[in-house]
From TrEMBL:
Main location: cytoplasm
Protein name: 16S rRNA (cytosine(967)-C(5))-methyltransferase
Keyword S-adenosyl-L-methionine appears in the UniProt entry: yes
Reactions the enzyme catalyzes: cytidine(967) in 16S rRNA + S-adenosyl-L-methionine = 5-methylcytidine(967) in 16S rRNA + S-adenosyl-L-homocysteine + H(+)
GO BP term, example: regulation of DNA-templated transcription
Organism listed in the record: Anaerococcus obesiensis
Active site residues of this protein: 375
GO CC term, one of those recorded: cytoplasm
PANTHER family attached to this UniProt entry: NOP2 YEAST -RELATED NOL1/NOP2/FMU SUN DOMAIN-CONTAINING (PTHR22807), RIBOSOMAL RNA SMALL SUBUNIT METHYLTRANSFERASE B-RELATED (PTHR22807:SF53)
EC number, UniProt record: 2.1.1.176
Subcellular localization: Cytoplasm
Gene that specifies this protein: rsmB
Residues spanning the membrane: none
Length: 426
């Protein structure tokens, strides 16, 4: 029952207190020896939430929305375990009824009745009886309908289907080599000696792919700053900016500093980098990264990038605009994102992005380079903003692999959904 209590508390904080699944899992990992069952449950319930609610709606006379929040979560955990995991069904019901007694004593018979009814008629109740394709997919893949419609509009039905099919597949983990401290071959050998299965990345020359990444962040090599855990697409963004040594660089939205630190590594610490973020609380993360990796010449600032800073005009050789976005490209790693976002968010974020890009444009020297990136998919925050930048007379698009912009997706590239485009000020 202790596991179920932790799972319930975790899901409650993610669903109703706006906390992040990764933070919750990291916190629980410090308290228990084996986190695997808890992780499977937290991610499993989040990844299948709409489907589980659909089944629950068939079983409950009370509307799902009207149920007590914790009781509802207990039922979703129960249905998830019965349907998706290979555990003894009645033992699960007993444990969850005992947990219900602690959070809402009066609901214990209700929980017992619902879960037992589900066990009796699981096959029939698990069927999705919906004819409309988009609505069917929304339940099957637990993807809000607006996201399915938006992806269909942005890329077509074939893309959307492949994207949905690729959700919840296990992803490999990639790392970035700190070339100021170690060579690729040396790091590869050190990690292989520890039993890690290491492959070269197909996306970035600065990256290695680790097939069995358990406890990677506890290794001596990580603590010594030989590598950073980072998705291949995110590494590629800095490679594309490709800053020269002894230059002036502005990383306008920098926290937690994953890309700032790579930019410093790429310049062998010779360039002056301003790493800025609006969120004061996140600045210490940038500092942590800089210290662990032993980097120099980085100034951390804390201003709102949508407000013009006169003193920055025409000052920078390189500007990285890795801007706040809806994060739909990392929905498979952070499943709660899909339920927290709305179409209104996408529209307002795209306006903020344009606003920050306008300022960054002014801060570039003639001949300076700007890279705009997001970890999202969908045309409004990506292609539309490429078009917006293309309309500026003094910006010239620099092709990447012969293309106006690159857009990675999880199903073809097995990395985060990522977008980036590069411009020179002329
Ligand atoms: C995509 S994240 C940046 C990730 C970072 N580049 C990295 O690789 O570690 C976007 C960041 O923009 C910051 N942000 C949001 N609105 C901002 C604004 N108006 N001005 C400056 N920073 C902002 C957020 O706090 C967040 O840390």
């Amino acid at each position: 029952m202790e596991d179920f209590k932790l799972i319930l508390d975790g899901l409650y904080r993610i669903s109703y207190k706006n906390e992040k699944s990764t933070d919750i899992i990291n916190e629980i990992a410090k308290k228990v020896e084996d986190i695997s069952y808890i992780t499977k449950n937290i991610y499993g319930v989040l990844e299948n939430k709409l489907y589980l609610e659909y089944i629950l709606a068939k079983l409950s006379k009370i509307k799902v929305k009207k149920l007590d929040k914790k009781v509802k979560l207990i039922l979703l955990i129960g249905i998830y375990n019965i349907h998706f995991l290979d555990r003894k069904n009645y033992a699960i019901v007993n444990e969850l009824v005992n947990l219900t007694k602690k959070v809402s004593f009066k609901s214990k018979s209700f929980v017992n009745a619902i879960l037992r009814s589900y066990i009796r008629d699981e096959k029939n109740l698990s069927k999705i009886n919906i004819e409309n394709d988009e609505e069917f997919n929304s339940i099957k893949y637990s993807m809000p309908l607006w996201i399915i419609k938006y992806l269909n509009d942005s890329y077509g039905k074939d893309y959307t289907q492949k994207f949905l099919d690729s959700l919840n597949k296990e992803r490999k983990l990639s790392i970035r080599i700190n070339k100021t401290k170690i060579t690729r071959e040396k790091l590869k050998n050190l990690l292989e000696d520890k039993g890690y299965i290491v492959e070269d990345s197909l996306i970035s020359t600065l990256s290695l792919v680790i097939k069995n990444p358990k406890s990677l962040a506890s290794t001596e090599e990580f603590k010594k700053g030989f590598f950073t855990i980072q998705s291949e697409a995110s590494i590629k963004v800095c490679e594309i900016l490709n800053p020269k040594k002894n230059s002036n660089i502005l990383d306008i939205c920098a926290a937690p500093g994953t890309k700032t630190s790579l930019l410093a590594e790429l310049c062998d610490n010779s360039s002056k980098i301003i790493a800025n973020d609006i969120s004061f609380n996140k600045l210490s993360k940038i500092n942590e990264n800089i210290k662990r990796l032993g980097l120099k010449n980085i100034e951390i600032t804390n201003f709102d990038a949508s407000i013009l800073k006169e003193e920055y005009k025409e000052k920078f050789d390189y500007i990285l605009c890795d801007l706040p976005c809806s994060g739909l490209g990392v929905m498979d790693r952070k499943p709660e994102i899909r339920y927290n976002r709305t179409m209104e968010d996408v529209i307002s974020l795209s306006k903020l992005q344009k606003n920050i890009l306008d300022k960054a444009f002014l801060y570039l020297k003639t001949g300076g380079i700007l890279v705009f990136s997001t970890c999202t998919i969908g045309s409004i925050e990506n292609k539309d903003n490429f078009n917006y930048l293309s309309k500026k007379k003094r910006l010239k698009n620099i092709k990447i692999n012969g293309k106006d912009y690159l857009e990675f997706n999880s199903f073809e590239d097995e990395t985060d959904g990522f977008f980036f485009t590069k411009f020179e000020k002329i």
